Amino acid sequence: MQQTQNTTLLIIGGGPGGYVAAIRAGQLGIPTILVEGQALGGTCLNVGCIPSKALIHVAEQFHQTRQHSQHSNLGIKVAPPSLDIAQSVAWKDGIVDRLTSGVAALLKKHGVKVIHGWAKILDGKSVEVDGQRIQCEHMLLATGSSTVELPMLPLGGVVISSTEALAPNALPQRLTVVGGGYIGLELGIAYSKLGVDVSVVEARERILPTYDSELTAPVAESIKKLGITLYLKHSVEGFDADNKLLQVRDPAGAMLQIATDQVLVAVGRKPRTQGFNLENLGLKMNGAAVAVDERCQTSMRNVWAIGDLSGEPMLAHRAMAQGEMVAEIIAGKARRFEPTAIAAVCFTDPELVVVGKTPDAVEEEGLDCIVAQFPFAANGRAMTLESKSGFVRVVARRDNHLILGWQAVGVGVSELSTAFAQSLEMGARLEDVAGTIHAHPTLGEAVQEAALRALGHALHL
């Protein structure tokens, strides 16, 4: 006889959106069951955000040490380093294990029942997991996303995705990255710093094509200095596995062959809509994603969708915010999702941050705005970090100085993203940021100086 469990909230997917929703629901006293077929933490904790940043850190440390062994303006003299990649991966795995164990402990602390298995949706009120039926009042879909594959370049063998790239058994001598977006460049730069000969193939005319060229120029310059070969406006045609040759077509239509030991396919991610009988709900779709309103409600009452499943931007912190919000709505609180201040961060070298509206966006909308930037070449803290490239840029209305957006590129600018987002959330004006005393010496002084420059009186430029 089939067992049946009843709960108020059933969450399918234990990634950042799903587990945060479960924790908040538990805090609010909502009986909650979370179903996850793989490790808790989803793509981000296991094979995405966290392990990639760990690998980037290893690569940066190794690269810096190699540079010091050759020549150092800092006066540091060391022997040429060697790398034990197995130990590096083990260190990365240790971080992942600690974080996923922490998620499990938090869910237990807040009374969330976790069922490990694959949910099969029966209808809007019930699922089946390994022969066990679960009935609910509310169903939250948080299934995340999966890697986009190319038909002419199927994954397998030496053709890998970011998942395999983050857990190498050994480093290839040559790596070709297909895709010049943030995933491809973060990993391509990391592998280059680990001593791998890296090439990047991008179909569009420049790297990071979703960001403006002024913002990405310092990243392009860094890639050039690292010796990474760029094949821009080149399309992939296929792969000769026997001879390890990636076949690409150049802008003139000529066929080229790139010799490589490994190919990393990094052309994006797509909502994970297969494998759990989503079609049984007959939900309205928005392209490949599940359509939701400002409360993350789908077209079916009491069925919710958050995170990558609900489309772009596919960011863990967006999913977390949506998950927390849905739990509070189910608890009876009045909430709606406001996507204005979601930071997008590229952990390239240098790092890149975009929050809110860009200069191009306000121009398209016909808004009369002030755009001002302050270069890190005039920032003392950046100099002490051996970096002078990049800038902080602010976009604000001309009439009332309301800040609409921030962009930055430079060393460590990911840590400025919270201040950027907070200023938009709080409705800050240029005078608010310019009048705030910023600690010296810090990278954050460039934020104040950008606001001052927008007002016509930057102090250090």
Number of strands: 24
Q: Point out poorly predicted stretches.
A: none
Amino-to-carboxy terminus distance: 76 Å
**Largest beta-sheet characterization:** 7 strands, mixed
Protein name: Dihydrolipoyl dehydrogenase
Catalytic activity: N(6)-[(R)-dihydrolipoyl]-L-lysyl-[protein] + NAD(+) = N(6)-[(R)-lipoyl]-L-lysyl-[protein] + NADH + H(+)
Disulfide bonds: 44-49
GO molecular function: dihydrolipoyl dehydrogenase (NADH) activity; flavin adenine dinucleotide binding
Overview of this structure, please?
This protein has 461 residues and is α/β, with parallel strands linked by helices. Helices cover 31% and strands 26% of the residues. The protein contains 13 helices and 24 strands. The strands form six sheets. Strands 1, 2, 3, 4, 5, 6 and 19 form a seven-stranded mixed beta sheet that branches. Strand 20 and strand 21 (351-356) form a beta hairpin. The longest helix is centred in the N-terminal third of the chain and has 25 residues, at 85-109.
In terms of topology, how is this protein built?
Blueprint: E1 4-12, H1 16-27, E2 32-36, H2 42-47, H3 49-70, H4 85-109, E3 113-116, E4 119-123, E5 126-129, E6 132-141, E7 145-147, E8 159-160, H5 162-165, E9 174-178, H6 182-193, E10 197-202, H7 213-226, E11 229-232, E12 235-240, E13 245-249, E14 255-259, E15 262-265, E16 269-271, E17 285-286, E18 289-290, E19 303-305, H8 316-330, E20 344-346, E21 351-356, H9 359-364, E22 369-375, H10 380-384, E23 391-397, E24 403-410, H11 417-425, H12 430-434, H13 445-454
Parallel strand pairs: 1-2, 1-6, 2-3, 6-19, 8-15, 9-10, 9-15, 10-11
Antiparallel strand pairs: 4-5, 5-6, 7-16, 12-13, 13-14, 17-18, 20-21, 21-24, 22-23, 23-24
